[in-house]
Specification:
single chain; 23 strands; 4 domains; OB fold (Dihydrolipoamide Acetyltransferase, E2P); alpha+beta; 9 helices; conserved putative lor/sdh protein from methanococcus maripaludis s2 fold; Elongation Factor Tu (Ef-tu), domain 3; 29% strand; 6-stranded antiparallel β-barrel
Length: 413
Amino acid sequence: MSLTSNTPAPLRNAILAGILQTTLLATLICVHAPLQAAEAQRSDLAEQIRISAAERSRSGIVTTLAIADTAAGIGQAGSNDLALAGTVVAPPALLAIASAAYGGVVQQVHVASAQVVRQGAPLLTLHSQAWLEVQRDYLQAAAQAGLAEARLQRDTALHADGIIATSRLEESRSAAMLARLTADERAQALRAGGWDSAAISALQRSRALTPELVLRAPRAGTLLEVNGNPGQRVEAGMPLASISRKGPLWIELQASRAQVERLKVGALLQIPGCGSAKVLAIGTAVSSANQSVPVRAEQQGSSDCLRLNAYVEARMAPSQVSTKAAPHSVLLPASALVRRGAQTFVFVQNPAGFMATPVQATQAGADLVRVEGKVAVGDAVASKGLVVLKGSWAGLGAEAAAAAPASAPAGAK
């Protein structure tokens, strides 16, 4: 459609606007298509970072050789790198504490730590004024109970003859019951001090008070520690000895986060020279001191090969070690990892410079990572001085890096 002087102005303006839009769109397509092709070509080459040996030396780039990940061959070779260190402790169910029921001064210590004792064996002897008062209170209560019982028997006979009223008999019966309860309470105080019924009966017969309070073992076992010394004053309830009876012991282990991922409750751990232990619990929190996770294992069987407070090493049984590790994984320093978005890369050295290689990494130790990808054992991977490589990879200074090989001979003259 041609434009003439007779064409209405609104129509002429609409036609010109359409022609202009079409021209601009065609121009943008012609310009954008080559740019897209160039960008795609540059994207294909972006993984290769070209840098000369001289540039690498000036930039302080340090490489580390990738080493074999022995954990990857556990399933085939039967080896085991899951070693956990820990300390042997006694479970709470095996422990018993001997404490002083009454305060006093330690007169004699009858045992020493690490000694095997039977139940009821004397551990310490205290001189206790409070113990003397407990015996006196019992004798008084027992005497009052005896008098109340005699009064009750007399009133029972008088009531049977019709001499006294029933109310008086009930009063006597109530007084006798209360007196007996008081005497029984004082007898329980004597039992808390370690006396049995025979000793209480002997006290009631002889009425011989003694300030000597003997602390006895509450159960048979091995003494872990004795806290009293002759001349030491102790308070009521103070723990003076701890005893552990024989039974399976616990091992409190420390595991790294990578090791915890391969452990589960119920797994068996091998203890060199001492059978096995079963994992009872795995902690859910990481220790702030050493970034380890607590793991508790229980000794299988009741062998005497484990000793309390001993430092031991435990390894996972070969049949239970996870075999999910990649057969071609390698170990690298954690400092070699570079993040771009959600992807992890490492810079692998090659004749042209470095190749930014995508990998998958998991923690393998304090400073090591397990890397899976196109990284072979013996490959040199940049681990320090990565700033220049990151800049060139991002397109900052890429031209200078590419021109470095050409300018190096001129600078050498």
